[in-house]
Structures are given as C-alpha cells and as structure tokens.
Amino acid sequence: MTDVKEVKIINTIGRRKTSIARVYLQEGSGQITVNKRDFAEYFPTDVLQTIVKQPIVAVDANEKFDIRANVTGGGVAGQAEALRHAIARALTYKGKAKQRDAQEQKRAIATNAEEQPVFTYPEKQNYAHLIDADANREILKKEGLLIRDPRMVERKKYGRRKARRRFQFSKR
C-alpha cells in the first residue's frame, strides 16, 4: 500500500468591486495559477502582476507557496485586487480551531467566569509550520492589504445620464 501524504491547503476568499477570488494556498515552489492558466498569461501587464504579488513580497514568501485561484466577475484590475486580498488573508490564516479557541477565551474573560473551564477544540489542522500568521498579519496590516476596499460603482439615477452627470441643459 502507498503512503498518503497529507497536504495542507488554506482556502480563502477575497473581494474587490464585483470581483471574487477564491485562493487555495499550499506549500510549493512559488507557482501561481489563475483560472487554470499561468499567472503571467492571465495578468499580462507588470502593474497587475505587482498588485497580485504585493502580499507575497511583503512577507518574503516568494518561493514558499503554490497558489491556485479561481477569479470571477469584474474586470482585470478588480480581479487582481481581489486576488491580492485573498492571498493576504491566506498568509494570515491560523485555522478554524485556533480562531474558535480565541473567541471562547475572550468570552470567558468578558464574563469574568473563572469557575467555568475554557473549552478548547481539538486541532484538526495546524498551520503553524506553514505560516507565521501573527508576524504576517502585522506586516500586511501596515501595508493595508487585509482590509477590503469598500468602494463600489455608484448606481445610475433616473433623470440623469449617469450616476451624477446630468443631461445637457439648453437655455433656449
């Protein structure tokens, strides 16, 4: 029988305008695949490529991870920024069990209930060897890469040509 190697994959979602990026990050050689195409082929300009690589370069993880991404909606600039958001989230991922433990401890502290034991969930997947989430979070937060950009296209209003542009006014 062959040995089955357990591969730890971190799955996160990033958004920008109407674009949604789903990222699957795992240990590897630094290969980035977007919608089953090479990253350089999907984002042909240097500007878009630097936008996508920004969180990877910031935490100095250039050739540590393989990234597979599915990106939908919007244009290429919105997709690149959604992908950047998802990669930044993946690089700060601690695992669901650790997040639940932290929430439980915060609740126990808030209620000042020393007599109640703090329940901890068993570690299903430990990502500590894969990424240093706390150090990465500090770096990426300073760069502003963990915050979803809330700017959206303003809707067109009736009685106007666009969202704010009015129809041409003729005095006579």
From TrEMBL:
Q: Which GO terms describe its biological process?
A: translation
User: What domain of life does the UniProt record list for this protein's source?
Assistant: Bacteria
Which interval of the chain is the signal sequence? none
> Which is one GO molecular function term here?
structural constituent of ribosome
Q: Which Pfam families match?
A: Ribosomal_S9
- Quote the InterPro entries the UniProt record gives: Ribosomal_Su5_D2-typ_SF, Ribosomal_uS9, Ribosomal_uS9_bac/plastid, Ribosomal_uS9_CS, Ribsml_uS5_D2-typ_fold_subgr
Q: Which GO terms describe its cellular component?
A: cytosolic small ribosomal subunit
**Keywords, in A-Z order:** Ribonucleoprotein, Ribosomal protein
Q: Which family does it belong to?
A: Belongs to the universal ribosomal protein uS9 family.
Q: What is this protein called?
A: Small ribosomal subunit protein uS9
Source organism (scientific name): Microscilla marina ATCC 23134
Write the lineage as a comma-separated list: Bacteria, Pseudomonadati, Bacteroidota, Cytophagia, Cytophagales
Question: Gene name?
Answer: rpsI
